[in-house]
Amino acid sequence: MTEPAVDQSVLDDFMRQFVQDHAPDVLHAIAASGDSLLVAQASRPGPVRDEAAHSAWIANAEKIASSAPGALLMQDYSADLMGLGPVSVLMAQAEHGLLLTMGNTSPGPDGQVHPSALVVATTWNADVGDLIRAMHALMERVGPSLTPLARGRGLQPQPARMPSPSRVF
Questions:
Q1: Which of 136, 144, 149, 157 has the fewest Cβ atoms within 10 Å of its own Cβ atom?
Q2: CB under 8 Å to 120, separation ≥6 — which residues?
Q3: Measured between alpha carbons, how far is 38 from 146 in angstroms, rounded to an integer?
Q4: Alpha helix (H) ranges present in 3-127?
Q5: DSSP classification of residue 79
Q6: pLDDT at 135
Q7: pTM above 0.85, yes or no
């Protein structure tokens, strides 16, 4: 018998709450699974979007999700070769803001690591330290739900656990 998949609306609610809690600095947030699929997304509320604009945004979010775990793995590999240890967060400076990408390399329910990613687009005014702590807390809640096996088993997001001060990036 097939078990139910993770409730998509629950993950989207977590992402919407994250964006809302960090408005107006967070523009978009995307959760990508270890197999590079878009799992959840949210954008800062704005003018009412028509259906075509919404469809275009989802297509773009799927493209971002397909590349995020690979980008993290590439940087992690490079950092390892340079003796720096694992990469936790990538930060890219863009013309109109910042792009923060956090990876989750916690083992999934099968004991295997399926690196998933949380990608957040921000304005220049964002407090990066605060956002990274918030991203870490969000990843603690939804990260295990982003593995391919977890989606098939219906693993739900966990209650929040804030990182200890010694674990802040």
A1: 149
A2: 26, 28, 29, 30, 99, 100, 101, 102, 131, 135
A3: 9
A4: 8-21, 51-81
A5: H
A6: 94
A7: no
